[in-house]
Write a structure and sequence with these properties.
10 helices
Length: about 280
């Protein structure tokens, strides 16, 4: 009901720009340009955590972009999902490169049940669905595969350092039962609204790699043709990971077709381009 009322009120009540507050427009041209006016680019946090996939972002997390993201996530501005989805679609398209083997499988990073209840919606999943729709409208086969789950409670990340965030999230995510089958045959793109230290994407990548999806031994092409191949810092075969509690080495962590796309990153990360 909360989500329905927000949708309804956005249609009948006076609106203001979600980025700058300008009246009589949901999103002004200047704020829209802040989200969509710059081509998505490769981004890296500093320091860059081990295990981080190749990540592309649409915009730096500042000013209008920050206001739109917070409005959508925390203040129920659900009408912003469409433009945020367009931005995420651009980042996903950029990281995946030209159409290749299989569809783009957008895997949203999961929110906790407590956060979803408090906000009245799952912000990342909503943006991912909008992005998949935008990709399909523009000729790219894409769908959302919401297969990640939180397997344990994690502490609030606010105020934690980058190493503390990695420790806090280690082993916290898992691919739901049967989820690995949904990822076979596609190009997996982890998606989120915001990247700061990269810790959440590292943990999500570990959980997907732990299923064996993308294992070169299961890939008849041997992983050739991946846009991440040959990029400095791209995770390759040899860095083994273990499923928490499994007590056995999981197969290769290379996952040649595992990538990530986000709407926004810290301005410092967006400015870095070391390719």
């Amino acid at each position: 009901m909360r989500g329905w009322w927000r949708e309804f009120s956005g249609l009948v009540l006076p609106t203001a720009c979600g980025g700058c507050g300008r009246p009589r427009t949901a999103l002004c041209e200047e704020c829209r340009a802040a989200l969509l006016g710059v081509p998505a680019r490769r981004v890296r946090p500093a320091p860059e955590p081990v295990g981080l996939p190749v990540v592309y972002a649409a915009a730096p997390y500042e000013d209008a972009v920050r206001a739109v993201l917070l409005g959508h996530k925390e203040r129920g501005a659900l009408g912003m999902a469409e433009v945020l989805g367009q931005a995420l679609a651009g980042a996903a398209r950029a990281v995946a490169g030209p159409s290749g083997r299989g569809p783009l499988l957008l895997v949203p990073l999961p929110s906790s049940r407590r956060a979803v209840r408090a906000r009245g919606h799952d912000a990342t999943r909503r943006i991912a669905l909008a992005a998949a729709g935008e990709l399909r409208r523009t000729g790219t086969d894409a769908r959302v595969a919401a297969v990640l789950r939180q397997r344990r409670v994690v502490a609030d990340q606010a105020g934690l350092s980058a190493p503390q965030r990695l420790a806090n999230l280690s082993g916290a995510l898992v691919v739901a039962g049967g989820g690995a089958r949904l990822l076979e045959g596609g190009r997996v793109v982890l998606v989120d609204d915001l990247m700061t230290t990269g810790a959440t994407l590292v943990e999500a990548a570990r959980a997907v790699r732990a299923t064996g999806v993308g294992d070169p031994g299961n890939d008849p092409s041997g992983g050739d043709g991946c846009p991440g191949q040959g990029i400095p810092g791209f995770p390759r075969a040899g860095a083994s990971h273990q499923r928490p509690g499994a007590g056995a080495a999981v197969r290769n962590a290379g996952v040649a077709h595992l990538m990530a796309a986000v709407v926004a990153v810290t301005p410092e990360s967006f400015a870095i381009n070391r390719n």
